[in-house]
């Protein structure tokens, strides 16, 4: 019995040692101790072919202006959903591009909406004023219901994350992390409109 226990202990120790050797980018960001307050994405783009998309994503919430908004409000249009918060440096960096694209696609088959995962209304409104953001954001800080709605398909694992929903409300693309090139998101939106 002692020999078996010793062998099991050695096996467990070896497994733990090997697990410690694996590279985990999220763990590395945490360990670096930069206190940046967010887990950064790498800007990777995931596109989902039309035939492989799952069910429509349904969500609703209250905007920074106190209005109720729902995914149903955008039925038949492409919807660009950006997860963000004001103290997130990449969120601030991509804000002008998102606003520019939102204005460019206004009335042309696509709408933009933000999902603020951290701030209260006053902070979100101040951010909008600073960066000239005109599209609404749902305040998702209390229960994370909007973020949860996307979890089964392509979860927003980092902030910022931008998700494109097709005209049927299904996820067609995700940009994990800061939008580096506005042209990439523009292409994803145009492709979804043209489907």
Automatic annotation (TrEMBL):
Q: What CDD domains is this protein classified in?
A: TlpA_like_family
Output the Gene Ontology cellular-component terms: cell envelope
Identify the InterPro entries for this entry.
Answer: Redoxin, Thioredoxin-like_sf, Thioredoxin_domain, Thioredoxin_ResA/DsbE_sf
Q: What is its main location?
A: other
Q: Name one GO molecular function term.
A: oxidoreductase activity
Gene Ontology biological process terms, A to Z: cytochrome complex assembly
User: Where is the protein localized?
Assistant: Cell envelope
Q: Please state the span of the N-terminal signal peptide per the UniProt entry.
A: 1-27
Tell me the keywords, alphabetical order. Answer: Cytochrome c-type biogenesis, Disulfide bond, Redox-active center, Signal, Signal-anchor, Transmembrane
The answer to whether keyword Transmembrane applies is yes
Presence of keyword Signal: yes
Pfam families from the entry? Redoxin
Q: In this protein, which residues make up the domain named Thioredoxin?
A: 50-195
Superkingdom classification of source: Bacteria
Q: What is this protein called?
A: TlpA family protein disulfide reductase
- Supply the source organism for this entry: Mycetocola manganoxydans
List the top taxonomic levels of the source.
Bacteria, Bacillati, Actinomycetota, Actinomycetes, Micrococcales
